[in-house]
């Protein structure tokens, strides 16, 4: 099938328009009084700022079939003062993956998403990051799964709790599949965040302490699920079936909301009893 976008031509046009809109002062260059023949920066100035040759910039802007490396794209993004959205667009056009930023060990939940968690009540909802760290939750999710506030912060991780916490080990009716899916999702996150030391340390710890994790990690399964079903065995309301939906934030792409809702009438009644 023929692509609807000529990425080479679009990359050339995008770089040219970003260069032409950027003034020397905004780029950190000396401002000269004489009139410029063309708007924005000159190609030589972009080349100097990015650490590449002027001829390379010319060929890029002429769409002459170049495929810039990740390092060159990063240098061009800095030189042209691209926004985060523009940087991602540049990498997409060049068919490259932007390097992930280093993640803090203890991530701060986005306030807007934390507020949204409360809005979802009475549906159980929680906020997690790419490491499956549980950043926020509403009372209904705590009642359904676990009192997360009673768990040390460094252990508030959905996968670690499912593997190691005694209250959650038997909470899932199809535990083996839940574990396999969770580890497959974590492997996808690991590939997308290769420079995250906290994620690497977590994987190393679970590999050393959980034979179940180590066995499934070695399978190298990869699966990112946006929705599904989970059978639960609750000590108060009994067996129930919940469906989950994963909601991604454009503003905070490494944080996602997971919302549970009843899959059938009996489960809906069970959740209602739990909430009351």
Automatic annotation (TrEMBL):
Superkingdom per UniProt: Bacteria
Annotated ranges, domain HTH cro/C1-type: 40-87
Pfam families, per database record: HTH_31 (PF13560), MLTR_LBD (PF17765)
PANTHER family: BLL4672 PROTEIN-RELATED (PTHR35010)
Entries under InterPro entries matching the protein: Cro/C1-type_HTH, Lambda_DNA-bd_dom_sf, MLTR_LBD
Matches recorded under Gene3D superfamilies: 3.30.450.180, lambda repressor-like DNA-binding domains (1.10.260.40)
Protein name stated in the entry: Helix-turn-helix domain-containing protein
CDD domains, A to Z: HTH_XRE
